[in-house]
Amino acid sequence: MITFKLTFLLSKVYFTVVLHLINFYLFNFDVYCWKNNKITQILVLKSVEIFRYVQVTGVVGRAELLSSIFLLAAFLAYTKSKGADHSIVWTPIISTVLLVAVATLCKEQGITVIGICCIYEVFVAQGFTLPMLIDTLLQVLRGKDGFPYAILQTLLKLIVLIISTLLLVIVRVQVIQSQLPVFTRFDNPAAVSSTPTRQLTFNYLLPVNTWLLLNPSELCCDWTMGTIPLVESLLDPRNLATVVFYAMLSLLAYHSLWYGHSSSKIVMMALSLIVLPFIPASNLFFPVGFVVAERVLYVPSMGFCVLVAHGFKLLSQRGGLKKTSWLLMGVLLTTHAVKTFNRNWDWESEYTLFTSALKVNRNNAKLWNNVGHALENQNSYERALRYFLQATRVQPGELLLKMNKPSEAKDAYIRALELDHTNADLWYNLAIVNIEMKDPSEALRNFNRALDLNPRHKLALFNSALLMQESGVWAMAI
Question: Where do the domains of the chain lie, and which CATH numbers do they carry?
Fold first, then answer.
Protein backbone atom coordinates (compact mmCIF):
# COMPACT_ATOMS: atom_id res chain seq x y z
CA MET A 1 0.00 0.00 0.00
CA ILE A 2 2.84 2.40 0.84
CA THR A 3 4.55 1.78 -2.49
CA PHE A 4 1.29 2.40 -4.38
CA LYS A 5 0.84 5.76 -2.62
CA LEU A 6 4.44 6.72 -3.36
CA THR A 7 4.00 5.62 -6.95
CA PHE A 8 1.06 7.97 -7.54
CA LEU A 9 2.78 10.73 -5.58
CA LEU A 10 6.02 10.63 -7.57
CA SER A 11 4.52 9.14 -10.76
CA LYS A 12 5.24 5.58 -11.83
CA VAL A 13 8.37 6.32 -13.84
CA TYR A 14 10.08 8.55 -11.24
CA PHE A 15 9.40 6.16 -8.37
CA THR A 16 10.84 3.24 -10.32
CA VAL A 17 13.95 5.31 -11.13
CA VAL A 18 14.34 6.13 -7.41
CA LEU A 19 14.30 2.41 -6.59
CA HIS A 20 16.86 1.77 -9.32
CA LEU A 21 19.16 4.46 -7.91
CA ILE A 22 18.92 3.04 -4.38
CA ASN A 23 19.93 -0.36 -5.76
CA PHE A 24 22.75 1.30 -7.69
CA TYR A 25 24.32 2.90 -4.62
CA LEU A 26 23.87 -0.17 -2.43
CA PHE A 27 25.56 -2.24 -5.11
CA ASN A 28 28.37 0.33 -5.13
CA PHE A 29 28.98 -0.15 -1.39
CA ASP A 30 28.71 -3.95 -1.63
CA VAL A 31 31.35 -4.15 -4.36
CA TYR A 32 33.60 -1.81 -2.36
CA CYS A 33 33.43 -4.30 0.51
CA TRP A 34 35.07 -6.88 -1.75
CA LYS A 35 38.08 -4.51 -1.91
CA ASN A 36 37.96 -4.38 -5.68
CA ASN A 37 39.76 -1.18 -6.71
CA LYS A 38 38.52 -1.25 -10.28
CA ILE A 39 34.84 -0.72 -9.58
CA THR A 40 34.27 2.26 -11.87
CA GLN A 41 33.68 0.06 -14.92
CA ILE A 42 31.28 -2.14 -12.96
CA LEU A 43 29.18 0.79 -11.81
CA VAL A 44 29.01 2.47 -15.21
CA LEU A 45 28.10 -0.80 -16.89
CA LYS A 46 25.57 -1.51 -14.15
CA SER A 47 23.85 1.84 -14.52
CA VAL A 48 23.35 1.19 -18.24
CA GLU A 49 22.63 -2.56 -18.13
CA ILE A 50 20.19 -2.68 -15.24
CA PHE A 51 17.55 -0.46 -16.81
CA ARG A 52 17.09 -3.07 -19.52
CA TYR A 53 15.35 -5.32 -17.01
CA VAL A 54 12.37 -4.63 -14.77
CA GLN A 55 11.20 -1.73 -16.91
CA VAL A 56 7.79 -1.98 -15.30
CA THR A 57 6.04 -0.01 -12.62
CA GLY A 58 3.49 -2.63 -11.61
CA VAL A 59 3.43 -4.48 -8.33
CA VAL A 60 5.63 -7.34 -9.61
CA GLY A 61 8.35 -4.99 -10.85
CA ARG A 62 8.33 -2.98 -7.63
CA ALA A 63 8.51 -6.17 -5.58
CA GLU A 64 11.64 -7.17 -7.50
CA LEU A 65 13.25 -3.77 -6.92
CA LEU A 66 12.33 -3.63 -3.23
CA SER A 67 13.56 -7.17 -2.62
CA SER A 68 16.84 -6.28 -4.30
CA ILE A 69 17.25 -3.21 -2.08
CA PHE A 70 16.85 -5.19 1.13
CA LEU A 71 18.95 -8.06 -0.25
CA LEU A 72 21.87 -5.71 -0.91
CA ALA A 73 21.35 -3.98 2.42
CA ALA A 74 21.39 -7.33 4.24
CA PHE A 75 24.65 -8.32 2.59
CA LEU A 76 26.17 -4.91 3.32
CA ALA A 77 25.21 -5.27 6.99
CA TYR A 78 26.75 -8.74 7.16
CA THR A 79 30.12 -7.49 5.88
CA LYS A 80 30.38 -5.50 9.15
CA SER A 81 30.03 -8.62 11.34
CA LYS A 82 33.80 -9.19 11.65
CA GLY A 83 35.51 -7.04 14.29
CA ALA A 84 38.99 -5.54 14.10
CA ASP A 85 40.33 -8.33 16.36
CA HIS A 86 38.54 -10.99 14.23
CA SER A 87 35.79 -11.30 16.84
CA ILE A 88 32.09 -11.68 16.01
CA VAL A 89 30.02 -8.48 15.99
CA TRP A 90 26.43 -9.59 16.59
CA THR A 91 24.58 -6.35 15.84
CA PRO A 92 25.21 -6.52 12.06
CA ILE A 93 24.19 -10.19 12.05
CA ILE A 94 20.88 -9.38 13.74
CA SER A 95 20.37 -6.54 11.26
CA THR A 96 21.10 -8.97 8.43
CA VAL A 97 18.43 -11.41 9.62
CA LEU A 98 15.83 -8.64 9.91
CA LEU A 99 16.66 -7.25 6.46
CA VAL A 100 16.50 -10.75 4.96
CA ALA A 101 13.01 -11.16 6.45
CA VAL A 102 11.88 -7.89 4.84
CA ALA A 103 13.50 -8.85 1.50
CA THR A 104 11.68 -12.20 1.61
CA LEU A 105 8.35 -10.48 2.30
CA CYS A 106 8.93 -8.38 -0.84
CA LYS A 107 9.89 -11.38 -3.01
CA GLU A 108 10.74 -14.97 -2.10
CA GLN A 109 14.23 -14.91 -3.63
CA GLY A 110 15.25 -12.35 -1.01
CA ILE A 111 16.04 -15.28 1.28
CA THR A 112 18.89 -16.35 -1.02
CA VAL A 113 21.08 -13.55 0.34
CA ILE A 114 21.73 -15.89 3.28
CA GLY A 115 23.62 -18.14 0.87
CA ILE A 116 25.54 -15.16 -0.48
CA CYS A 117 26.53 -14.19 3.07
CA CYS A 118 27.69 -17.76 3.80
CA ILE A 119 29.86 -17.83 0.69
CA TYR A 120 31.30 -14.42 1.54
CA GLU A 121 32.08 -15.52 5.10
CA VAL A 122 33.86 -18.73 4.14
CA PHE A 123 35.72 -17.81 0.96
CA VAL A 124 36.23 -14.04 1.23
CA ALA A 125 36.18 -12.95 4.88
CA GLN A 126 38.03 -16.06 6.15
CA GLY A 127 39.98 -16.65 2.93
CA PHE A 128 39.41 -20.41 2.76
CA THR A 129 39.57 -22.47 -0.42
CA LEU A 130 37.90 -25.80 -1.03
CA PRO A 131 41.20 -27.76 -0.75
CA MET A 132 41.91 -26.01 2.58
CA LEU A 133 38.48 -26.96 3.94
CA ILE A 134 38.85 -30.57 2.78
CA ASP A 135 42.35 -30.83 4.31
CA THR A 136 41.15 -29.37 7.63
CA LEU A 137 38.21 -31.78 7.75
CA LEU A 138 40.47 -34.76 7.05
CA GLN A 139 42.88 -33.69 9.78
CA VAL A 140 40.02 -33.50 12.28
CA LEU A 141 38.57 -36.88 11.23
CA ARG A 142 41.98 -38.50 11.64
CA GLY A 143 42.24 -37.04 15.14
CA LYS A 144 45.47 -35.19 14.36
CA ASP A 145 44.08 -31.75 15.10
CA GLY A 146 40.95 -29.91 16.21
CA PHE A 147 39.04 -27.22 14.39
CA PRO A 148 40.95 -23.92 14.29
CA TYR A 149 39.37 -21.04 16.22
CA ALA A 150 38.64 -19.16 12.98
CA ILE A 151 36.64 -22.11 11.64
CA LEU A 152 34.70 -22.42 14.90
CA GLN A 153 33.77 -18.74 14.69
CA THR A 154 32.73 -19.20 11.09
CA LEU A 155 30.62 -22.24 11.97
CA LEU A 156 28.86 -20.31 14.73
CA LYS A 157 27.93 -17.48 12.35
CA LEU A 158 26.80 -19.91 9.66
CA ILE A 159 24.64 -21.82 12.15
CA VAL A 160 22.90 -18.60 13.15
CA LEU A 161 22.27 -17.74 9.49
CA ILE A 162 21.03 -21.23 8.63
CA ILE A 163 18.67 -21.41 11.62
CA SER A 164 17.22 -18.01 10.76
CA THR A 165 16.77 -19.18 7.16
CA LEU A 166 14.90 -22.30 8.28
CA LEU A 167 12.61 -20.20 10.47
CA LEU A 168 11.84 -17.89 7.55
CA VAL A 169 11.12 -20.89 5.32
CA ILE A 170 8.76 -22.35 7.94
CA VAL A 171 6.90 -19.03 8.20
CA ARG A 172 6.69 -18.81 4.42
CA VAL A 173 5.36 -22.38 4.13
CA GLN A 174 2.71 -21.59 6.74
CA VAL A 175 1.65 -18.53 4.75
CA ILE A 176 1.01 -20.62 1.62
CA GLN A 177 -0.58 -23.35 3.79
CA SER A 178 2.02 -25.97 2.77
CA GLN A 179 0.75 -26.02 -0.82
CA LEU A 180 2.62 -24.97 -3.92
CA PRO A 181 0.53 -23.06 -6.46
CA VAL A 182 -0.74 -25.08 -9.43
CA PHE A 183 0.12 -23.73 -12.88
CA THR A 184 -1.44 -24.69 -16.18
CA ARG A 185 0.02 -25.65 -19.53
CA PHE A 186 -0.88 -22.13 -20.63
CA ASP A 187 1.48 -20.56 -18.06
CA ASN A 188 4.38 -23.01 -18.15
CA PRO A 189 4.08 -25.82 -20.72
CA ALA A 190 7.15 -27.72 -19.49
CA ALA A 191 5.81 -27.89 -15.93
CA VAL A 192 3.05 -30.32 -16.99
CA SER A 193 5.16 -32.25 -19.50
CA SER A 194 6.42 -35.76 -18.95
CA THR A 195 9.99 -36.97 -18.39
CA PRO A 196 12.47 -36.23 -19.98
CA THR A 197 10.82 -33.28 -21.75
CA ARG A 198 10.33 -31.41 -18.48
CA GLN A 199 13.94 -31.83 -17.32
CA LEU A 200 15.49 -31.09 -20.72
CA THR A 201 13.40 -27.96 -21.20
CA PHE A 202 14.01 -26.56 -17.73
CA ASN A 203 17.76 -27.11 -18.08
CA TYR A 204 17.70 -25.49 -21.53
CA LEU A 205 16.09 -22.39 -20.00
CA LEU A 206 19.35 -21.79 -18.07
CA PRO A 207 21.41 -20.97 -21.20
CA VAL A 208 18.41 -19.00 -22.52
CA ASN A 209 18.53 -16.74 -19.47
CA THR A 210 22.32 -16.56 -19.68
CA TRP A 211 22.04 -15.40 -23.28
CA LEU A 212 19.63 -12.68 -22.18
CA LEU A 213 22.31 -11.46 -19.77
CA LEU A 214 25.07 -11.71 -22.36
CA ASN A 215 23.14 -10.28 -25.28
CA PRO A 216 19.84 -8.67 -24.18
CA SER A 217 18.89 -7.55 -27.67
CA GLU A 218 15.66 -9.56 -28.03
CA LEU A 219 13.53 -8.80 -24.99
CA CYS A 220 9.92 -9.88 -24.70
CA CYS A 221 7.27 -8.92 -22.14
CA ASP A 222 5.64 -12.38 -22.23
CA TRP A 223 7.40 -15.73 -22.65
CA THR A 224 4.42 -18.01 -21.95
CA MET A 225 2.63 -20.51 -24.21
CA GLY A 226 4.66 -21.40 -27.33
CA THR A 227 7.41 -18.81 -27.03
CA ILE A 228 10.10 -21.42 -26.34
CA PRO A 229 9.28 -24.83 -27.88
CA LEU A 230 9.70 -27.81 -25.58
CA VAL A 231 12.93 -29.83 -25.75
CA GLU A 232 11.45 -33.29 -26.22
CA SER A 233 14.49 -35.38 -27.18
CA LEU A 234 18.13 -35.86 -26.25
CA LEU A 235 18.89 -35.41 -29.95
CA ASP A 236 17.54 -31.85 -29.94
CA PRO A 237 20.51 -29.59 -30.92
CA ARG A 238 19.50 -27.09 -28.24
CA ASN A 239 20.87 -29.53 -25.66
CA LEU A 240 24.35 -28.46 -26.82
CA ALA A 241 23.65 -25.02 -25.35
CA THR A 242 22.82 -26.69 -22.02
CA VAL A 243 26.06 -28.69 -22.09
CA VAL A 244 28.13 -25.59 -22.90
CA PHE A 245 26.41 -23.68 -20.10
CA TYR A 246 27.21 -26.29 -17.47
CA ALA A 247 30.78 -26.62 -18.76
CA MET A 248 31.40 -22.87 -18.44
CA LEU A 249 29.75 -22.74 -15.02
CA SER A 250 31.90 -25.64 -13.83
CA LEU A 251 35.09 -23.94 -15.03
CA LEU A 252 34.22 -20.70 -13.23
CA ALA A 253 33.27 -22.61 -10.07
CA TYR A 254 36.53 -24.56 -10.16
CA HIS A 255 38.54 -21.36 -10.58
CA SER A 256 36.81 -19.66 -7.67
CA LEU A 257 36.79 -22.62 -5.27
CA TRP A 258 40.27 -24.01 -5.82
CA TYR A 259 42.38 -20.84 -5.68
CA GLY A 260 42.71 -18.19 -2.99
CA HIS A 261 43.85 -15.10 -4.90
CA SER A 262 41.73 -11.96 -5.27
CA SER A 263 40.58 -12.86 -8.77
CA SER A 264 38.98 -16.11 -7.58
CA LYS A 265 37.21 -14.25 -4.77
CA ILE A 266 35.71 -11.76 -7.22
CA VAL A 267 34.54 -14.59 -9.49
CA MET A 268 33.12 -16.41 -6.46
CA MET A 269 31.03 -13.44 -5.34
CA ALA A 270 29.91 -12.75 -8.90
CA LEU A 271 28.74 -16.35 -9.31
CA SER A 272 26.90 -16.25 -5.98
CA LEU A 273 25.01 -13.13 -7.12
CA ILE A 274 24.16 -14.75 -10.45
CA VAL A 275 23.24 -18.27 -9.35
CA LEU A 276 21.68 -18.10 -5.88
CA PRO A 277 19.00 -15.39 -6.47
CA PHE A 278 18.01 -17.13 -9.70
CA ILE A 279 17.48 -20.60 -8.19
CA PRO A 280 13.87 -19.96 -6.97
CA ALA A 281 12.88 -18.92 -10.51
CA SER A 282 14.83 -21.63 -12.33
CA ASN A 283 12.05 -24.28 -12.34
CA LEU A 284 14.69 -26.85 -11.34
CA PHE A 285 13.40 -27.57 -7.83
CA PHE A 286 9.74 -26.56 -8.15
CA PRO A 287 7.68 -25.15 -11.04
CA VAL A 288 6.92 -21.45 -11.28
CA GLY A 289 4.23 -19.60 -13.18
CA PHE A 290 6.39 -18.52 -16.11
CA VAL A 291 8.88 -19.89 -18.63
CA VAL A 292 11.22 -16.90 -18.73
CA ALA A 293 10.79 -13.59 -16.89
CA GLU A 294 13.35 -10.86 -17.46
CA ARG A 295 12.58 -9.24 -14.12
CA VAL A 296 14.14 -12.17 -12.21
CA LEU A 297 17.46 -11.33 -13.88
CA TYR A 298 17.68 -8.05 -11.97
CA VAL A 299 19.97 -9.29 -9.16
CA PRO A 300 21.80 -11.86 -11.35
CA SER A 301 22.69 -9.04 -13.74
CA MET A 302 24.67 -7.45 -10.89
CA GLY A 303 26.90 -10.49 -10.64
CA PHE A 304 27.17 -10.64 -14.41
CA CYS A 305 28.37 -7.03 -14.51
CA VAL A 306 31.02 -7.90 -11.93
CA LEU A 307 32.27 -10.69 -14.21
CA VAL A 308 32.37 -8.36 -17.24
CA ALA A 309 34.21 -5.63 -15.32
CA HIS A 310 36.68 -8.14 -13.88
CA GLY A 311 37.35 -9.55 -17.33
CA PHE A 312 37.92 -6.01 -18.61
CA LYS A 313 40.35 -5.37 -15.76
CA LEU A 314 42.40 -8.48 -16.61
CA LEU A 315 42.51 -7.59 -20.30
CA SER A 316 43.43 -3.95 -19.70
CA GLN A 317 46.40 -4.99 -17.55
CA ARG A 318 47.97 -6.72 -20.52
CA GLY A 319 50.03 -4.22 -22.47
CA GLY A 320 49.09 -5.38 -25.95
CA LEU A 321 45.36 -5.53 -25.18
CA LYS A 322 44.94 -2.33 -23.16
CA LYS A 323 43.74 -0.13 -26.03
CA THR A 324 41.65 -2.93 -27.49
CA SER A 325 39.93 -3.61 -24.16
CA TRP A 326 39.08 0.08 -23.70
CA LEU A 327 37.71 0.20 -27.24
CA LEU A 328 35.54 -2.87 -26.64
CA MET A 329 34.28 -1.44 -23.34
CA GLY A 330 33.37 1.82 -25.06
CA VAL A 331 31.49 -0.02 -27.81
CA LEU A 332 29.70 -2.16 -25.21
CA LEU A 333 28.56 0.81 -23.13
CA THR A 334 27.49 2.81 -26.18
CA THR A 335 25.45 0.00 -27.74
CA HIS A 336 23.80 -0.82 -24.40
CA ALA A 337 22.96 2.84 -23.81
CA VAL A 338 21.39 3.17 -27.27
CA LYS A 339 19.46 -0.07 -26.85
CA THR A 340 18.21 1.02 -23.43
CA PHE A 341 17.00 4.34 -24.85
CA ASN A 342 15.17 2.57 -27.68
CA ARG A 343 13.74 -0.08 -25.34
CA ASN A 344 12.19 2.61 -23.14
CA TRP A 345 9.89 3.61 -26.01
CA ASP A 346 8.55 0.05 -26.17
CA TRP A 347 6.95 0.67 -22.79
CA GLU A 348 5.14 3.82 -23.94
CA SER A 349 1.79 2.02 -24.29
CA GLU A 350 0.26 -1.44 -24.37
CA TYR A 351 0.25 -1.37 -28.15
CA THR A 352 3.96 -0.54 -28.48
CA LEU A 353 4.88 -3.06 -25.77
CA PHE A 354 3.07 -6.02 -27.30
CA THR A 355 4.03 -5.19 -30.89
CA SER A 356 7.69 -5.07 -29.82
CA ALA A 357 7.21 -8.52 -28.26
CA LEU A 358 5.78 -9.86 -31.54
CA LYS A 359 9.04 -8.87 -33.25
CA VAL A 360 10.77 -11.38 -30.98
CA ASN A 361 8.12 -14.10 -30.82
CA ARG A 362 5.27 -14.69 -33.25
CA ASN A 363 4.21 -18.07 -31.82
CA ASN A 364 2.52 -16.68 -28.71
CA ALA A 365 -1.23 -16.32 -29.21
CA LYS A 366 -1.48 -14.20 -26.06
CA LEU A 367 0.64 -11.46 -27.65
CA TRP A 368 -1.51 -11.35 -30.78
CA ASN A 369 -4.60 -11.21 -28.61
CA ASN A 370 -3.18 -8.39 -26.46
CA VAL A 371 -2.31 -6.29 -29.50
CA GLY A 372 -5.88 -6.84 -30.69
CA HIS A 373 -7.27 -5.59 -27.38
CA ALA A 374 -4.96 -2.54 -27.50
CA LEU A 375 -6.25 -1.68 -30.98
CA GLU A 376 -9.81 -2.32 -29.81
CA ASN A 377 -9.31 0.29 -27.07
CA GLN A 378 -8.20 2.71 -29.81
CA ASN A 379 -11.45 1.97 -31.74
CA SER A 380 -9.42 0.39 -34.56
CA TYR A 381 -11.73 -2.58 -34.88
CA GLU A 382 -10.74 -3.85 -38.32
CA ARG A 383 -7.04 -4.04 -37.41
CA ALA A 384 -7.94 -5.58 -34.04
CA LEU A 385 -9.95 -8.30 -35.80
CA ARG A 386 -6.91 -9.28 -37.90
CA TYR A 387 -4.83 -9.76 -34.73
CA PHE A 388 -7.60 -11.74 -33.02
CA LEU A 389 -7.88 -14.05 -36.04
CA GLN A 390 -4.11 -14.54 -36.13
CA ALA A 391 -4.18 -15.46 -32.44
CA THR A 392 -6.71 -18.20 -33.11
CA ARG A 393 -4.52 -19.53 -35.94
CA VAL A 394 -1.43 -19.69 -33.71
CA GLN A 395 -3.04 -21.43 -30.70
CA PRO A 396 -6.78 -21.77 -31.24
CA GLY A 397 -8.19 -23.79 -28.37
CA GLU A 398 -6.48 -22.25 -25.36
CA LEU A 399 -7.09 -18.70 -26.52
CA LEU A 400 -10.75 -19.27 -27.34
CA LEU A 401 -11.25 -20.73 -23.87
CA LYS A 402 -9.56 -17.69 -22.35
CA MET A 403 -11.93 -15.51 -24.40
CA ASN A 404 -14.95 -17.33 -22.88
CA LYS A 405 -15.81 -19.09 -26.13
CA PRO A 406 -15.97 -22.75 -25.05
CA SER A 407 -17.95 -23.99 -28.09
CA GLU A 408 -15.37 -22.62 -30.50
CA ALA A 409 -12.57 -23.98 -28.28
CA LYS A 410 -14.18 -27.44 -28.34
CA ASP A 411 -14.34 -27.39 -32.14
CA ALA A 412 -10.69 -26.32 -32.31
CA TYR A 413 -9.55 -29.18 -30.07
CA ILE A 414 -11.61 -31.73 -31.99
CA ARG A 415 -9.97 -30.58 -35.23
CA ALA A 416 -6.56 -30.82 -33.56
CA LEU A 417 -7.32 -34.36 -32.32
CA GLU A 418 -8.21 -35.42 -35.85
CA LEU A 419 -4.59 -34.62 -36.73
CA ASP A 420 -3.01 -35.95 -33.51
CA HIS A 421 -5.34 -38.26 -31.58
CA THR A 422 -2.45 -39.64 -29.42
CA ASN A 423 -1.76 -36.31 -27.72
CA ALA A 424 -2.73 -36.61 -24.04
CA ASP A 425 -2.59 -32.83 -23.53
CA LEU A 426 -5.21 -32.28 -26.23
CA TRP A 427 -7.59 -34.77 -24.59
CA TYR A 428 -6.96 -33.10 -21.23
CA ASN A 429 -7.66 -29.63 -22.64
CA LEU A 430 -10.83 -30.90 -24.30
CA ALA A 431 -11.95 -32.26 -20.91
CA ILE A 432 -11.39 -28.80 -19.38
CA VAL A 433 -13.61 -27.34 -22.11
CA ASN A 434 -16.26 -29.95 -21.29
CA ILE A 435 -16.20 -28.82 -17.66
CA GLU A 436 -16.66 -25.22 -18.77
CA MET A 437 -19.64 -26.36 -20.85
CA LYS A 438 -21.18 -28.18 -17.82
CA ASP A 439 -20.70 -31.66 -19.31
CA PRO A 440 -18.93 -33.62 -16.52
CA SER A 441 -19.54 -37.10 -17.98
CA GLU A 442 -17.87 -36.20 -21.28
CA ALA A 443 -15.08 -34.43 -19.36
CA LEU A 444 -14.43 -37.59 -17.34
CA ARG A 445 -14.28 -39.71 -20.51
CA ASN A 446 -11.73 -37.32 -22.03
CA PHE A 447 -9.68 -37.28 -18.81
CA ASN A 448 -9.59 -41.07 -18.99
CA ARG A 449 -8.45 -40.95 -22.62
CA ALA A 450 -5.62 -38.63 -21.58
CA LEU A 451 -4.65 -41.03 -18.78
CA ASP A 452 -4.75 -44.00 -21.15
CA LEU A 453 -2.16 -42.24 -23.29
CA ASN A 454 -0.14 -40.89 -20.34
CA PRO A 455 -0.89 -42.56 -16.98
CA ARG A 456 1.37 -40.04 -15.22
CA HIS A 457 -0.44 -36.94 -16.48
CA LYS A 458 -0.65 -35.18 -13.10
CA LEU A 459 -3.27 -32.58 -14.03
CA ALA A 460 -5.52 -35.20 -15.62
CA LEU A 461 -5.22 -37.41 -12.52
CA PHE A 462 -5.96 -34.57 -10.15
CA ASN A 463 -8.86 -33.06 -12.09
CA SER A 464 -10.48 -36.41 -12.88
CA ALA A 465 -10.37 -37.42 -9.20
CA LEU A 466 -11.79 -34.04 -8.21
CA LEU A 467 -14.53 -34.32 -10.83
CA MET A 468 -15.45 -37.83 -9.70
CA GLN A 469 -15.69 -36.70 -6.10
CA GLU A 470 -17.83 -33.66 -6.91
CA SER A 471 -20.15 -35.51 -9.26
CA GLY A 472 -20.61 -38.55 -7.01
CA VAL A 473 -19.02 -40.93 -9.50
CA TRP A 474 -16.33 -41.78 -6.92
CA ALA A 475 -18.88 -43.17 -4.49
CA MET A 476 -20.57 -45.13 -7.28
CA ALA A 477 -17.21 -46.60 -8.35
CA ILE A 478 -16.51 -47.77 -4.80
Answer: 2-178+194-346 (no CATH), 350-477 (1.25.40.10)
